[in-house]
Write a structure and sequence with these properties.
The chain has one domain. By secondary structure, the chain is α/β, with parallel strands linked by helices. Strand 5, helix 4 and strand 6 form a beta-alpha-beta unit. The chain is 32% helix and 19% strand. The termini are far apart. The model has no long low-confidence stretch (mean pLDDT 84).
Length: 165
Amino acid sequence: MRAEVFSLSSADGVFNRAVAELHAALESVAVGRRPSRLGPNQLCVVLWLQVGILNVLLGADLEHGSGNTEGWQAIVNSGERPDGQAGVFKVPHHGSSNADCPACWTNLLVAKPIVIVTPYAPSNLPASQEIARLCTRTQHVYLTSDPAHYRLPLREQASRRKDAA
């Protein structure tokens, strides 16, 4: 079975801006100042998998930017991405609404795709309204875990268990 992996992000303009932000942060640290907060998750790596006849879109933590050359809109507008639509979609940024791009749903995904959401317990993502939003797009929404029932161990407790072993 043939399988291929394509990286769909990050966009060149976003990468260049991130390099400039990193330089500014390093300069701040060098003179003893706290660096400013870097921009949103624009440098994460979104992947497109083609496995046989199945296309899978792994959304990482990419957020929906305000312009056409960043975030999801840059991927939708790209002439370099593979043809076709994905039948499986790992929802970006733990289902957060700031990562939802309507053009992604219409241009990159089949109607009613299988959707996978990875919760992030420290931020209580995805919230119930975000799950409801996803359920309006497809009836095939799956969470990889239930953060309400599977809390992460506190770091102190985890380190004590390691020391005791």
